[in-house]
Structures are given as structure tokens and as C-alpha cells.
Amino acid sequence: MLDALVLLFSSPGAMLAFLAAVPAGLMFGAIPGLGGKIALIAVMPFLFGMDPVSGAVFLISMHAVVHTGGAVPTILLGIPGTGPSTAVVMDGHAMTRRGEATRAVTAASAASAVGGVIGAVVLGVLIPASLWVLKLFSYPEIFFLALFGIAFSALLSGSAMVKGLITGCIGLAMAFVGIDEIFGVPRYTFGQPFLFDGVDLIAAVLALYAIPEMIALSHRKGSEAAAAARSRPADGRGQVLQGLRDVFVHRWMMLRTSLIGAVVGIIPGLGGDVAAWLCYGHAAQTSRRPELFGKGSVEGIIGPEAANNSKEGGALVPTLFLGLPGSSGMAILLIALTPLGIAVGPDLAANNQQIIWVMLWALVLSNLLAAGVVILAARWLAFVSRIQPRYIVPYVYLLSLASVYMSTGEWRFFLLFAACGMLGVVLKRQNWPRAPFVIGLILGQAAEDALVKSLSIWGPWFFMRPGALLLLGLMLISLISLSRKLIRSSQSVWEGDHAAR
Amino acid sequence: MLRADLILGIILAVAFGYMLVDLQGMRWQAAVAPGLTAAAGLFLVVWHLIGTGVRLWRPPPCDAPQDAASYDIEDALPIAGFLLAVCMVLLLGFAIGGALFVFLSVLGTTRGRWVVSLVCAAPVYPFFELAIDRGLGVVMFEGLLFRWFSG
User: Fold this and answer.
1) Which residues of chain B have a CB within 8 Å of the CB of A187?
2) Which of A12, A77, A14, A85 is nearest to A358 (CA)?
3) What DSSP string runs through B95-139?
4) For A328-342, how does the pLDDT look when each residue is reduced to its tens digit (9 = 90+)?
5) How many other β-carbons are positioned within 10 Å of the β-carbon of residue A159?
6) Residue of A182, A391, A425 lying closest to B109 (CB–CB)
């Protein structure tokens, strides 16, 4: 465990990567509309040639602090920097309007740091147990985990549940393109040799995620951020201490929301939005002054911010140990780790735990460093928030295309990239969830492999194995209880919003 | 929005149907996962189509919210920008096509401020040619036109 910390500090490349990743992650979080997934996509071309330790440290550190940076425009400008920041915007910006911006930013950053560390502790606790736990997982369990990952992300799409399940099926279908590994039969390749190895994950995922977001950003004018920035009130230095005191006063709530966030992260398919809103609801339900929620309650900032960052540690558990991404962000992280030669899954846990510990330390240190940077430099990060995203769009297009070419070396994948991009635009415009597609695409091969092996070994009743039945039961219970909690959280938020009007 | 949903649903139904037909003659090991996926997808799409069709043909209540998604020329421009990026890189490669794309894109965004556009486009060529190609040793795509000219 401590060897990994020594390795991190003794490797100049890893330290350089760490120091570069934290400001980069904060900036991607601070620019509204970009966020963690775009950050990972944008840095992919720079990973080629990096050693695995430096590359992994860079990716983890950058991705871990995006939500910390996202709190700055959310609180100061009232513009959510990342998706999960939407849970913070009402209370955060209300505090800014009240002249308590520094207090709010400090509380958010400190809660993020504590949440991030708790998420890392959860990961750390599970590392020694991982080999024992992995022995309980055979093909049927892996198949059900993959299936539930898609189902969770689809079912939590709310009113678009059927659409979510359909996009999950599209993702799965795309995963089956290529030569079948067992019999060498080409499936859905239309006779095109470049598709024999299957659909390139980078091309499809980047197109589905980055392109629709960038096209939406092209529409957005910069005036809203600038107008909000002009109304930013003066800050007081004593508010830093007040913000830190808030975090200490609400330490138990913060601890609970951090643990909820980490558990949400572990369940494949659930993202940061779920963690943030679930914990906002929990903070409101357990608060002594719930009437202040939506009007500038510091608890409404601490709860979701802690959950946002603790979720990352939890999400790394299925991603690193099973190769099953815990969220769409983790799915892209998984792809980004590929050019570094890091093959996640049971083999990584069995043979290369050192790199997992390095990632854990990077997670801890980046969260602590990011909190310090944000508290000290919130004003400058607010300036970054005013950069008009449409100037960034052309570079993201080029970097995405470069990532596709570097991973495939084949220009025909540009056409697939364009086609998937158009599909992504239509799905986004028609409110069809894209997360199930990405998770289906990534888990498709693993799910098929597990299904065929389960059927071959145990026959059609493979799901009657005790482990599979237990997993099935646990998943169904957590699915139902999470859905109910989410509905309750959204109702309490709606009621708070309604009362505020 | 409902009409577009309907069209998208029909396209997906055809795609899932094709998936099922294409599996004929394959061994069960190769066909089971795609078959289950296509069958589930087809069932869900048909379910969705029925729901959408019912909502489309039923007159909406007076206080129903207007459809959020409608397509117009404003949507086409950013999409054209993305397709331009793909075409430029495809034809002229990353270094030249990329730089030209950034120049044209910023020129369009800033309504003709060509100095700003030049400044934005300037780093693209050295980034791909010096940093990626020579620095990292990764040979980037040179473009179909250059490939064609060089035989």
C-alpha cells in the first residue's frame, strides 16, 4: 500500500502527470458543458507513449477533480459546470446572491475532498478483499452484473425508460459486430474488412458522447455566463473559516452522503447525477432546517458535493476488478486506459495490485490538492468559466478524430464516427438516454462471453446457481429501493422549488 | 418530436429485424446473444411505436406543453460544422485539414474576424506535425487527397 505512495512520489513522470492533471480537471469542470467525459476524450491523444503509471495517475487525478471544479461556476455564476452540479445550483447560487460565495465554495471544496477520500477508502478496503470476492463471481454472475448495468442506467432514465432500454439494446447490438470469436463467423460486417475486429469503442463512444454535447454547445451563447459573472458579489476572507466550520458541523451527514455516493458508484450503470440527487434528498430529509433547502442551505451543497466525489472511488471497484464500468464516465476511463496497456478486470486485481494502489493514492491526493486550489483560486476559476465554449468546440472535434485514428489507424472509422455522431445528435435531441448505449457497447462482449459459457457449462438453468440468485435478489432490491428513493428525492426537491415560488 | 420518434423507431425496428434475419444458419453459440438482443430490442421498439402512435393520433389536451424538440436551420449549422471537420480531416489530413477547419470554424463563429481565426488555427499544424508526429512518433493521417496525389 505504502509502496505505491513511494512509487508515485519517486516517479518524476507520475508526479508531473499528477500536477498537470489537477488544474486540467478543474478547468474542464469549471467550463460549463465540458465535464469529466469530455476531459477524458480531449486528453486521449496525449496518452499514447506515456508509461502506464503516469498515464493512469493522470487520468484518475483529472477525472476525480472535475466535480470539484464544476462547483465554481455552479455556485458563483449559477451555471452548473457538470451534470451532478445541478443538485448544488439552487443552494449554492442562493448563497452567492446573499454574499456568501466564498463560504459556499469552501464548503463545497472541503466536502468534495472528504467525499473523494472516503470513496478512495472504500476502494482501499475492497482491494484486499477483491480476490476473495472475485472467486464468488463466475460467468452467470458476470452476465447478470452486465445486464443489470444496462438495466439500471435505462430504468433510471425516468419517463424515457423504454427508450433507455432500446438504446441499451442498440449498444449491445453494436458490440456484436465483427468476427465471432468462437467460430470465426462474420456478424453484421456488411463485408467490410475494417469491421472484422468489431466497432471501435473509442470511435463509437466519443461520437455518441462528445459530438452531441459539442453541437449543443455551439448553440450556446456566452452572454449568460458573462451576465451572471457581473452580478457576483464581493467575498469576505473570514468566509473560508466559516465554510470549513460548516463542513465540521455537518460531518455526520457528510459521512453518510459520502458512503451513499460510494455505494451508488459501485452499482454498475448509476452515474454522478443519481448520487448527487439522492444525497441532496437525504440531506434535506435529515436536516433540522429543511425549509432552507433551495434558498441557500449549506447542507444542500455539502451533501451532493461529498457524494459526487466519493462516487468516483466506488465506481472504480467494478471498473478495475471486473472490467464492468460503474458509470458512463468510467466507461470512457476504461477505454482511455487501453492505450496505456492497462487491461482491467480480474487479472489486474490478481497480478498488478500495485497500479490499483497508485490510482487510489492519486485519487486521495488529487482530491485534497483540488480542494486547496479551488479555495485559494475560486476567483480565477470563475474567469475560466466565462470562456465561450463554442471556441473550444473545433479543438474537441479534432482531438476526438485524432483519438479515433490513433486507436484504429484506419481512416474508414471516421465515417463510422460521423454516423455514430449523427445518431448521438438525434438521440440527444429526442431525449433518448445515451448512457445505456455506451454501457451496452462496452459490456456486450463480456456479457456474450459469460452467457455462452454459462449456457455451455450449466445449461439454461444457470441462473439457479446460489451466487447468481443472491446477486439477482440483491440487484432487484437495490433497483427498487433506489428508484423509490430517487422518486422521493425528486418530489422533495420539486416541493421545495414550488414552495420557493 | 413524436413524428421524429416514430421515424427513429421504425428505422430501429428494421435494424433489429435485419439482425434477427441475418442470424439464420449460425450456430447457437454465435447467435444466442445477438438473437436475444435483437428480439428484446424489437419488442421494445414495437412497444414504443404503439405508445408513440397512440399519442400522435390522439388530440393533445389544451394545456399540454409544446414539443421541446423541433428541427430548423439553426440546428443544421453546428451539424454541418461537425461534418466539415470530418471531411477536412478525411481529405486533407490532421495538420492541414485540421488547421483549415479551425480557421473556417472560428471565422464563422466570430462573423469574419480573420485575425482571431488565424490565431486560433495557428497551433493546429505544429501540434499535429511536431508534437504528435515527431514528438510522440505517431504518424497521423495525411488525408485522402495527399494519398491519392502521392500514388
Assistant:
1) 22-23, 26, 30, 34
2) A14
3) IIIHHHHHHHHHHHHTTS-HHHHHHHHTTHHHIIIIIIIIIS-PP
4) 778 888 888 877 888
5) 8
6) A391
| Mean pLDDT rounded to a whole number for chain A | 79
What is the Cα–Cα distance from B7 to B19, expressed in whole angstroms? Answer: 19
Interaxial angle between packed helices A299-322 and A251-266, expressed in degrees from 0 to 180 and rounded to the nearest 10: 30
Chain B residues in contact with A218 by the CB 8 A cut-off are 77-78, 81
| Interchain CB distance below 8 Å, B48 and A162 | yes
Give chain A positions within 8 Å (CB) of B40: 165, 169
A232 is written with which cell numbers? 457576483
Residue A186 pairs in a beta bridge with A179
Other CB atoms within 10 Å distance of the CB of residue A196? 13
Q: Which of A1-5, A280-284, A384-388 has the weakest average pLDDT?
A: A384-388
Residues with Cβ within 8 Å of B73's Cβ and at least 6 positions away in sequence, in order, are: none
The phi, psi pair for A103, rounded to 5°, reads -60, -45
* Distance of residue B6 Cα from the nearest chain A Cα, in angstroms: 11
Return d(Cα A495, Cα A144) in angstroms, integer: 37
The answer to whether A111 and A374 are in contact (CB under 8 A) is no
Proportion of chain A above pLDDT 70, given as a percent = 82
- Grid coordinates representing B66 are 409544446
- pTM beyond cutoff 0.80: no
Q: Cβ–Cβ of A172/B44 closer than 8 Å?
A: no
The answer to whether B44 contacts A166, with C-beta atoms less than 8 Å apart, is yes
A444 chain-B contacts, CB cut-off 8 A: 33
Task: Report the chain A residue with the minimal C-alpha distance to residue B83.
Answer: A418
Q: Is the pLDDT of residue B61 over 70?
A: no
| Best to test chain B binding among A392, A430, A449, A456 (most B CBs inside 10 Å) | A430
- The neighbouring-strand residues paired with A178 are A187
Residue pLDDT, tens place only, A6-26: 777 788 888 888 899 998 888
Q: How far apart are CA A371 and CA A240, in angstroms?
A: 12
Of A195, A216, A215, A125, residue with least CA distance to A416: A195
Choose between B13 and A211: higher pLDDT. B13
pLDDT at B86: 94
Of A453, A359, A463, A326, nearest in space to A127 by CA: A359
CB distance B81–A393 less than 8 Å?
yes
Q: Is A394 within 8 Å of B102 when comparing Cβ atoms?
A: yes
Question: Which chain A residue's Cα is nearest to B98?
Answer: A398
Could you report the per-residue pLDDT of A287-304, keeping only the tens digit for each? 887 777 777 888 888 988
- Contact criterion met (CB < 8 Å) for B136 and A402: no
Answer whether B94 sits within 8 Å of A187, measured CB to CB: no
What does the pLDDT look like over A400-417, one tens digit per residue? Answer: 888 788 878 888 999 999
Separation in Å, CA of A272 to nearest CA in chain B: 25
Closest Cβ–Cβ partner in A218, A402, A448 for B33: A448
Determine contact, residues B101/A394, Cβ cutoff 8 Å.
Answer: yes
Nearest CA to CA, how far is B108 from chain A (Å)? 11
- pLDDT for A226 equals 47
Angle at B7 between CA B3 and CA B10, to 5 degrees: 135
What average pLDDT does range A211-240 have in this prediction? 62
C-alpha cell at A47: 496518452
- Number of Cβ pairs closer than 8 Å across A and B? 153
